[in-house]
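User: Hi! I'm working on a homework problem where we have to compare a predicted structure to a textbook description. Could you give me the structure for the chain below?
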Amino acid sequence: MTPKQWTTAARVFTLGAACCGAVYLGGRFDLVTLPREGCSPVQRYSPGSRLLIDRWAPEWVEGDCVFVADSSGVIHLVLLSEERAGEGWWTETDAKDCPGVDPSELGWVAEERLLGRVVLSLAP
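Assistant: Happy to help. Predicted structure tokens:
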């Protein structure tokens, strides 16, 4: 191969790798903005915060801030507080002045209903 052919092959490989990386990142992560009006049921995030969500979290850990869907499909921001084998996760919110969804209303949440973990927050 000539140097020109090597350069062309390197450019094609680099472009292909960049496209594959973009597809992977776009499929795994999501960027969500909390509503500016109202309050946040989790103290560490303020209204209007931009949250980076990992939709393919390899495992869930107590204390994770996650998005969860209730039985009617409404999405809530909660904290994971306790795991029970065979039943799933118990959730909670920690902002006393902004009550979120009632944990007893959600009940034990199966991992299939956990939509993603917050990995990064950008305050407004």
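For your comparison, note the following. The two ends are 53 Å apart (CA to CA). The CA atoms of residues 85 and 110 lie 10 Å apart. Good luck with the assignment!
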